């Protein structure tokens, strides 16, 4: 449902929030390494989020990315919209251009109710909440490989 760029962006923001909470900036290379994501893709996403003012960016040897306290309250809806636009909220579940209540595809009514719940969750979940869950050990941010 979410694009790869969007899922990477959310993961990156969680890590940037954690570093920001202890007064640190983090470089894009470190974000990529600590979250198992491709560096160039992560840098592009972080720059996009910076342009949308969801994170701050400082250039130079002591630079990196960080989030102000108020930016940490950004919702997943805002992040998804910044990266993917409103496609998730407005698109047809089967990808048809003309799908609507008046001209529904076979999946329309079922997908519409799921979409409604998804949008509610996106509006009600902040990056800070997700970051706190990771810090408290209730969830993880990096792929766990078991032998």
TrEMBL record:
Signal sequence coordinates: none
InterPro entries in alphabetical order: Tscrpt_reg_Rrf2, WH-like_DNA-bd_sf, WH_DNA-bd_sf
Membrane-traversing stretches: none
Cellular component GO terms, alphabetical: cytosol
Pfam families: Rrf2 (PF02082)
PROSITE patterns to which the protein is assigned, alphabetical: HTH_RRF2_2
GO molecular function: DNA-binding transcription factor activity
Alphabetical list of PANTHER family matching this protein: TRANSCRIPTIONAL REGULATOR-RELATED, WINGED HELIX-TURN-HELIX TRANSCRIPTIONAL REGULATOR, RRF2 FAMILY
Protein name listed in UniProt: Rrf2 family transcriptional regulator
């Amino acid at each position: 449902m979410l694009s790869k760029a969007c899922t990477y962006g959310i993961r990156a923001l969680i890590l940037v929030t954690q570093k920001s909470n202890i007064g640190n900036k983090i470089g894009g290379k470190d974000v990529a390494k600590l979250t198992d994501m491709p560096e160039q893709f992560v840098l592009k996403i972080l720059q996009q989020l910076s342009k949308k003012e969801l994170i701050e960016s400082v250039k130079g040897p002591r630079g990196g990315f960080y989030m102000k306290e108020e930016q940490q309250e950004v919702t997943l809806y805002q992040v998804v919209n910044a990266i993917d636009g409103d496609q998730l909220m407005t698109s047809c579940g089967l990808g048809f251009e003309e799908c609507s209540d008046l001209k529904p595809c076979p999946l329309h009514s079922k997908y519409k109710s799921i979409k409604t719940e998804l949008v509610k969750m996106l509006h009600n979940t902040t990056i800070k909440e997700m970051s706190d869950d990771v810090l408290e050990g209730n969830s993880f941010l990096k792929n766990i490989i078991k032998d």
